[in-house]
Structure formats: structure tokens, C-alpha cells
């Protein structure tokens, strides 16, 4: 897991930075960070998979859609997720395809509920390592 929470960055919300050698890895680590806010992801077994396919006009929109889709799946499936096998492609439009793996919420530690993802101060930096910054509405 490569992410860190940013203390005193967002007063009533939770902010984090996630990292990855690839954009796929950085998006996966963003998802791990979001679920870590809600539970101890190390205890979530990858027992059930869900297919995900998203298309967006840019990387930031794709990140917003990705994390929002995971919250939707959390609510509709009553699941937490801990493993993400995804592939991101595109230049003018971006497409994310893959599977997410997790287990039922029941029986897991419940921390802070994430209500949504914010575009506020969202940032994706390319480089030798990708860095993503996100603020979550809690």
C-alpha cells in the first residue's frame, strides 16, 4: 500500500495522497486509501469480484468516476474492497476496465463512512512515480 493521509489539509473531510509506478497502481492505491478510511483493508478478503468499466474525458474525471463507482458498489453490494485489478488506457479519452475484489461489510470494523469524492484540490501528477491527491467527503 502506497498512500498517506494528509492531516490538517481538509477540516471536515479526509485528504490523502496515493502513489504508484503506473497510473493503474496509483488508482488502485487511491481505492485502498479510500477503503482504509472506512475499515482495516488488511482484514478484507478478496472473496467476491465485481466488474468495472468506465470512460471519462480526462484522468481527473476518471479518478472521480472510479472512486465514486467503488462507493456505489459498496452501497449496492454491501461490500468493502481490498484488491483492484485494473487497466487504464487512452490519451484523448480514458477508459478503465477490470475487476475489484472484496467481501461483505458485515463482520468488519466500521470506521468513518465516506459519503463522496470531491473534485476540490484533486490532482494527478505524472513523473517517475504517479502521485494522486484526493479529498473525501465524510
Give a brief outline of the structure:
The protein has two helices and seven strands. It is an alpha+beta fold.
Folded structure, characterized:
- This protein is α+β, with helices and mostly antiparallel strands.
- It has one domain (3-9, 23-137): 3-Layer(bab) Sandwich (Archease, Possible Chaperone, Chain: A, domain 1).
- It is built from two helices and seven strands.
- It has helices at residues 23-38, 59-77, and strands spanning 3-5, 14-20, 48-56, 79-90, 94-104, 116-125, 130-137.
- Helix 1 (23-38) packs parallel to helix 2 (59-77).
- The model has no long low-confidence stretch (mean pLDDT 94).
Write a concise keyword list for the protein shown above.
single chain, 138 residues, alpha+beta, 3-stranded antiparallel sheet, 2 helices, globular
SSE order and pairing:
Elements: E1 3-5, E2 14-20, H1 23-38, E3 48-56, H2 59-77, E4 79-90, E5 94-104, E6 116-125, E7 130-137
Antiparallel strand pairs: 1-2, 2-7, 3-5, 4-5, 6-7
Helix pairs in contact: 1-2
Using the CA coordinates, give the radius of gyration. 14 Å
Task: Report the uncertain regions.
Answer: none
Average pLDDT, all residues: 94
* Total helical elements: 2
Q: What composes the largest sheet?
A: 4 strands, antiparallel
Structural class: alpha+beta
Q: Count up the domains.
A: 1
Amino acid at each position: 500500500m502506497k498512500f498517506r493521509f494528509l492531516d490538517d489539509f481538509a477540516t471536515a473531510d479526509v485528504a490523502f495522497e496515493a502513489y504508484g509506478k503506473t497510473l493503474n497502481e496509483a488508482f488502485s492505491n487511491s481505492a485502498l486509501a479510500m477503503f482504509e478510511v472506512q475499515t482495516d483493508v488488511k482484514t478484507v478478503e478478496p472473496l467476491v469480484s465485481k466488474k468495472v468499466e468506465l470512460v471519462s474525458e480526462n484522468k481527473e474525471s476518471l479518478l472521480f468516476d472510479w472512486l465514486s463507482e467503488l462507493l456505489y458498489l459498496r452501497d449496492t453490494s454491501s461490500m468493502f474492497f481490498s484488491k483492484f485489478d485494473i487497466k487504464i488506457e487512452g490519451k484523448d479519452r480514458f477508459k478503465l476496465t477490470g475487476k475489484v475484489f472484496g467481501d461483505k461489510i458485515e463482520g468488519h470494523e466500521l470506521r468513518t463512512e465516506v459519503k463522496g469524492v470531491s473534485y476540490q484540490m484533486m490532482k494527478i501528477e505524472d513523473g517517475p512515480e504517479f502521485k494522486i491527491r484526493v479529498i473525501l467527503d465524510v
